[in-house]
Recover the amino acids of this structure.
């Protein structure tokens, strides 16, 4: 295993960087889209509400692989060129944003209705109340579940390997087929993933415990 | 785009065969992982020294690995140390490994949610530990677990699409074969795949929501 790591270490690290980069990009954009979809789901506008509902229900109920393959196969065929990394990251963003929208919506709904009324009656407009009063409280509630979504995102980013997205899993696959040492290669790949996900999940469960005590 | 050609009877039948394999693999895995996960969850629930800790660590590790890696591992790496499955069973094995870790957490949480008094009441009425567990505690815990298990089943059905990488002949794989013949079939096949997956998963998610809403109507 050490021999493998010393020979192919740079490739593993290269793949790790792509995995990290793709996950962070997808997290950033899916947080933005997810927040908007959550607000739309609770808005009074019927069109926005049904749009958000369809978006969330649709993308939560189809496999991530189909979204990614759609970006990789269908989009270049009819519209414009996307490479594996781009289509993987776009697919991840769309898929994760649907889950994040659900999480944030649940968070917003746990903020008492009185907060909204208080904001409105002290002269804020409804969007100001949302931004300054509701969302900051909601985000604190949803940070642990959002952390779990981020862990899922990191794990799901391995899907980039299926569209040649240069990520850790892809590099591991290349190395495995080069050295025929599948067993050890995949264990190393697994360890690299655990570096990220295990720490995140311990961080999240600690946060949850800490906040549970304080409240 | 050629919708008529793409949706010929032969192609639709081929897709439906794929869907059947998808559901078969998912169903086999959920049953197996309920058994294994239930066992692991029980070990963690009754807190056997050392053993529970070790099981907990193994579960944490598996839960934090990508499923794709586990699929690769069971199909490509395990034969290197002499464990061989065919494609169907190695997909089932990979999904089972991953899903039992998920289910064991759900089952443990379900068991923990049953008030301690129930266990004590069972023991003090003269039932022994395994009787209390199976007659008193587990049925109550199971009711609370069912919605979560159904939503795990949904993600399992979605995850079977990953087994396309080891060419399990499920829905995604069959659709890929069909659109590989003719580039006019690409978009119709994506629409068909999406619709089929969506119908199955959406119905299940409605079931899960229904079961969840019934929880509080005692």
């Amino acid at each position: 295993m050490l021999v493998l790591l010393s020979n192919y270490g740079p490739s593993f690290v290269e793949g790790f960087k792509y995995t990290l980069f793709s996950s962070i990009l997808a997290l950033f954009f899916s947080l933005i889209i997810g927040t908007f979809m959550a607000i739309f789901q609770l808005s009074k506008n019927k069109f926005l509400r049904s749009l958000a509902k369809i978006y969330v229900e649709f993308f939560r109920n189809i496999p991530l692989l189909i979204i990614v393959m759609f970006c990789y196969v269908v989009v270049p065929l009819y519209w414009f060129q996307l490479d594996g990394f781009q289509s993987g990251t776009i697919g991840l963003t769309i898929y994760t944003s649907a889950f994040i929208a659900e999480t944030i919506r649940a968070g917003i709904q746990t903020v008492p209705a009185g907060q909204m009324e208080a904001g409105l009656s002290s002269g804020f407009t409804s969007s100001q109340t949302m931004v300054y009063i509701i969302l900051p409280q909601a985000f604190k509630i949803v940070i642990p579940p959002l952390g779990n979504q981020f862990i899922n995102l990191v794990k799901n980013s391995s899907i980039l390997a299926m569209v040649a997205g240069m990520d850790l899993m892809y590099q591991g696959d290349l190395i495995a087929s080069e050295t025929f040492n599948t067993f050890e290669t995949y264990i190393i790949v697994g360890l690299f993933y655990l570096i990220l996900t295990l720490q995140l999940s311990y961080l999240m469960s600690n946060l949850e415990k800490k906040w549970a005590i304080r409240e | 785009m050629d919708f008529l050609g793409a949706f010929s009877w032969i192609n639709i039948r081929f897709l439906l065969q794929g869907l059947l394999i998808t559901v078969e693999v998912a169903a086999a895995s959920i049953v197996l992982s309920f058994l294994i996960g239930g066992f692991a969850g029980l070990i963690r629930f009754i807190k056997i020294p050392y053993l529970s800790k070790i099981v907990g660590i193994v579960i944490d590790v598996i839960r934090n690995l990508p499923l794709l890696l586990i699929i690769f591992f069971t199909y490509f790496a395990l034969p290197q140390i002499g464990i061989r499955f065919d494609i169907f069973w190695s997909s089932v094995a990979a999904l089972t490994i991953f899903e039992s870790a998920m289910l064991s957490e759900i089952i443990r949480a379900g068991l923990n949610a049953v008030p301690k008094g129930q266990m004590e009441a069972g023991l003090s009425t003269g039932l022994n530990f395994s009787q209390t567990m199976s007659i008193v505690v587990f049925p109550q815990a199971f009711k609370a677990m069912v919605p979560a298990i159904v939503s795990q089943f949904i993600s399992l059905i979605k995850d079977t699409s990953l087994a396309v990488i080891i060419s399990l002949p499920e829905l995604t794989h069959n659709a890929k074969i069909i659109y590989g013949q003719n580039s006019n079939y690409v978009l119709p096949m994506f629409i068909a795949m999406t619709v089929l997956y969506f119908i199955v998963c959406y119905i299940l998610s409605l079931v899960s929501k229904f079961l969840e809403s019934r929880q509080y109507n005692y």
